[in-house]
Every structure is written in structure tokens, then in C-alpha cells.
Amino acid sequence: SKRYSITLLPGDGIGPEVISVAKNVLNLAASIDGIEFKYEEVPIGGAALDLTGLPLPDETLLSAKQSDAVLLGAIGGYKWDKNEKHLKPENGLLKLREGLKVFANLRPATVLPQLVDASTLKREVAEGVDLMVVRELTGGIYFGKPRGFGTNENGEEIGFNTEVYAAYEIDRIARVAFETARKRKGKLCSVDKANVLEASMLWRKRIMEIALEYPDVELSHMYVDNAAMQLIRDPKQFDTIVTNNIFGDILSDEASMITGSIGMLPSASLGESGPGLFEPIHGSAPDIAGQDKANPLATVLSAAMLLKYGLGEEKAAKRIEDAVLDTLNRGFRTGDIYSTGTKLVGCKEMGEEVLKSVDSQVPSP
Ligand code: NAD
Ligand code: IPM
Ligand code: MN
């Protein structure tokens, strides 16, 4: 039997709740193929701050680097919101992405037929949406220098950040995006603000340059403000979207709502080599944490992406995706995706139902 080592990072808020569900689903789905996991559960974010004084302890990064894949819940919470920058939970996550060099963040947004009524968009707009946001994850304004606080010429307090991209950073995310589009419907839309920002002007130039390597992919460009509007007007026009770190952050949350809930969207963060990082796109949801209300499916689907993109175990990944669909077909819904006529369940019960759906796929002897 195959063995993989997984670093588990439950984190804060609903993180531990959704990770507990995803871990059980991952175990059962993979065991059917004789796959076993060795887990190392280590702290990150606020949990790590409370334990060690740092949001990303050295041991946590080391464990992640030495693993075959990393599964993360979420980080952050009111308790640490006033911490100085390097002692914020969010900084632990950014350092982890940087440390693992996972520059390509794949965020699929698929409207499942079972959840069309959970979307806030009209049925005819939402139905059939299937898009992929390829978000650059280790550059741009999140990491650019100079950054900090200071005073301006009037002695007034200022805060500043820098949006900066080097050509190589754009080229490598462009290649991931073109490859992704090629395996999908062959359409790529690059989203930027090239009418205003130099970093976006270079972005567009490099995307056009790399496009020469992919003549089979149909490339278009869109300004981010228009893209935000078009996503709601007619989301089906999009297949694959490639964009920078901050635009990708915002547009993927927006895209999640087409599908019904941010509680449904998984993600995979990949580098040139080494372990990938898999996490839901949502945060620690402090408003519902500890109440067994969180939708665990984004994390469960992130576990499926871990199997597919992280370990190449496509059969086990498909089994999880099928189990999620089966659970939805059987009518189970957490509050965020509830609609009349369906069965309202909590996080734990949703997990148990997904396990039953995985179990029902075990080939009978
Ligand atoms: P959030 O994604 O945590 O929550 C936004 C809203 O969506 C909330 O109403 C929440 O209840 C709901 N929601 C989110 N996930 C859900 C789920 N699985 N099921 C049901 N409802 C869900 O965003 P926020 O409130 O802006 O941020 C809260 C904290 O999370 C902050 O500290 C923020 O920095 C952090 N955060 C972390 C990550 C991450 O770990 N990757 C991502 C985003 C935000
Ligand atoms: C996300 C989050 C993070 C981001 C924060 C918590 C650093 O919003 O994973 O989408 O902005 O990348
Ligand atoms: Mn985000």
C-alpha cells in the first residue's frame, strides 16, 4: 500500500471543525485504493501565536516542507486583529505560501446543479457556470517593497504598499494558466489594470509574449473593474481567468457567490516542485466558529484537490467529488447553502453524510 505524509494545519475559528471532517473523508476515500496517510498536525495562525508567540513557527514550516502535501483550514480572528503586522495570523499564512514557493493558486468555481437555487443570481445566469481562477500567490502588492508606515511631507501618518511584478513571476503563472486553459475549454482571460498600473502593463505584455507558446488557447484581456461586473452579468463567458494576487483574492470570493456559497470553494496552491498547499478559499468565519454551522465541503473538496494535484491520486479524488455530489443529491445542506425542501445539517453531520456517500462507493466483494 502507498503511504503519504500530510501536514495538517487546522488553524483558527472554523478551521479545526472543517479540517476534522476533511481528514475523515480523505482517509476513507484513499483507503479504498490502499492509500495510507501519516499526519503531522501542527499549529499555524492565531493558534500558533497563542502556543509559541509566532504565527508560523519554524517547526510548522519544516513539517510542511518535508510533507507530501499540506491541508489547511483557515487562520485569523478578532483576538489577534490588533497585533502588529509580523505577529498577525495572516502573516503566518503568507509566510507559509512564500516558504513553500506555491506561486500558482487554482480556485475553481463550479455551479453544481444541486445548488443552483442557493445562488443569489438568477437560475439562467448561474446554471452551468464552470470557471477556474488562476491567482498569482507569492508576488504583487502582498509582498512588494517598499512597504510600511511613515509620515508624509505634511507630517501626516501614511501607510504604503507596492504592487511589483518581475517578468519571471508573470511568465511562470502565465504558463500555469495557459496549461490549465488548454485542459479545460481552451479560453483564457487575463485580468489586469493595464490602463493605469505599470505592474499591470508589464503583466499584459508578458501574457501576450507567453501566449505565442499556446496558439491553441484563445486569449482575451479585461480590466479588473469590468471583470468584476462581467462575473455577475454573464459568468458563463469565462473559462479560465489568470490574474494577480490581490485581484485573484477579490474575484474568487466574488465568483464563490455565483456557486451558492464561499463555503463550497476549494483551492490548490502549487509551485515548481515540492508539496502543494490545499485550503478552502474562505477564512476562519469567527461569526459562526464553534457553533457547528460551518460548511465543510470547501475543505473536503480541497482534500480532493490534494489527492489530484498534490499526489496524482485521481481515482480517490474523484471518489470524494462524487461523494459530495451524492450527499447534496440526498438533500443535505449546511445553513449557507440551504434552500426550502432540503435538509439542514451542521458541520459534523454533513461530514458523516459525506462519509456514508464515500462508503457507498466501496466495491462490494
Ligand atoms: P470569512 O471567509 O472568514 O467569512 C466571510 C463570511 O462567510 C462570514 O459570514 C462567514 O460566516 C461566511 N463563511 C465563511 N466560510 C464559511 C463556511 N465554510 N461555511 C459557512 N459560512 C462561511 O472572511 P472574513 O470574515 O472577512 O475573515 C475572517 C477571518 O478570516 C479574518 O481574520 C481573515 O483575515 C481570515 N481569513 C483567512 C483566510 C485563510 O485562512 N485562507 C481567508 C480569508 C480570511
Ligand atoms: C485568502 C485570504 C488570505 C489572502 C489572507 C488571509 C492573507 O483572504 O486565502 O484568500 O488574502 O490571500
Ligand atoms: Mn481571500
Automatic annotation (TrEMBL):
<dbReference type="InterPro" id="IPR019818">
    <property type="entry name" value="IsoCit/isopropylmalate_DH_CS"/>
</dbReference>
<dbReference type="GO" id="GO:0003862">
    <property type="term" value="F:3-isopropylmalate dehydrogenase activity"/>
</dbReference>
<keyword id="KW-0028">Amino-acid biosynthesis</keyword>
<comment type="function">
    <text>Catalyzes the oxidation of 3-carboxy-2-hydroxy-4-methylpentanoate (3-isopropylmalate) to 3-carboxy-4-methyl-2-oxopentanoate. The product decarboxylates to 4-methyl-2 oxopentanoate.</text>
</comment>
<keyword id="KW-0479">Metal-binding</keyword>
<feature type="domain" description="Isopropylmalate dehydrogenase-like">
    <location>
        <begin position="5"/>
        <end position="354"/>
    </location>
</feature>
<keyword id="KW-0520">NAD</keyword>
<dbReference type="GO" id="GO:0000287">
    <property type="term" value="F:magnesium ion binding"/>
</dbReference>
<keyword id="KW-0464">Manganese</keyword>
<dbReference type="InterPro" id="IPR024084">
    <property type="entry name" value="IsoPropMal-DH-like_dom"/>
</dbReference>
<dbReference type="GO" id="GO:0009098">
    <property type="term" value="P:L-leucine biosynthetic process"/>
</dbReference>
<keyword id="KW-0460">Magnesium</keyword>
<dbReference type="GO" id="GO:0051287">
    <property type="term" value="F:NAD binding"/>
</dbReference>
<comment type="pathway">
    <text>Amino-acid biosynthesis; L-leucine biosynthesis; L-leucine from 3-methyl-2-oxobutanoate: step 3/4.</text>
</comment>
<comment type="subunit">
    <text>Homodimer.</text>
</comment>
<keyword id="KW-0432">Leucine biosynthesis</keyword>
<keyword id="KW-0100">Branched-chain amino acid biosynthesis</keyword>
<comment type="similarity">
    <text>Belongs to the isocitrate and isopropylmalate dehydrogenases family.</text>
</comment>
<protein>
    <recommendedName>
        <fullName>3-isopropylmalate dehydrogenase</fullName>
        <ecNumber>1.1.1.85</ecNumber>
    </recommendedName>
</protein>
<dbReference type="InterPro" id="IPR004429">
    <property type="entry name" value="Isopropylmalate_DH"/>
</dbReference>
<keyword id="KW-0560">Oxidoreductase</keyword>
<dbReference type="Pfam" id="PF00180">
    <property type="entry name" value="Iso_dh"/>
</dbReference>
